[in-house]
Amino acid sequence: MKKNSPDLTHKRTIQDGDTLPLMTERIYGDSKYYLEVAKVNNLINFRQLVPGEELYFPPIEKIS
């Protein structure tokens, strides 16, 4: 079973040093979805993530 999959919902706790593009790369295999994740989480400034907070990573539909 694959741990990270773009078709499943993921919730992650922000760790010190995490960036939204890095987290989306880990979960979706591509950092280009970071703006969608920021929007879903109502992030005003995605460059200032707070360690300990949780982010929701929704299922995405990949376009080939």
Structural class: alpha+beta
Fraction of helical residues: 25-40%
Query: What is the number of independent domains?
Result: 1
CATH architecture: Roll
How far is the N terminus from the C terminus? Answer: 23 Å
Query: What does the main sheet amount to?
Result: 2 strands, antiparallel
Oligomer: single chain
Widest beta sheet: strand line-up: 1-2
Helix and strand element order: EHHE
CATH class: Alpha Beta
Unreliable segments (pLDDT under 50, ≥5 consecutive)? Answer: none
Per DSSP, the total helix count is 2
Radius of gyration: 11 Å
Q: What is the total tally of β strands?
A: 2
**What is the third-level CATH name, the topology?**
Membrane-bound Lytic Murein Transglycosylase D, Chain A
CATH homologous superfamily designation: LysM domain
Q: What fraction of residues sit in β-strands?
A: 5-15%
Shape: globular
Mean pLDDT: 86
Description:
The chain has 64 residues and is α+β, with helices and mostly antiparallel strands. It has one domain (10-57): Membrane-bound Lytic Murein Transglycosylase D, Chain A, CATH 3.10.350.10. The protein has helices spanning 20-28, 34-40; strands at 10-13, 54-57. The protein has a two-stranded antiparallel ribbon. It is globular. This is LysM domain-containing protein. Residues 10-57 form the LysM domain. InterPro entries: LysM.
Summarize this structure briefly.
The protein has a single domain, classed as Membrane-bound Lytic Murein Transglycosylase D, Chain A. Helices cover 25% and strands 12% of the residues.
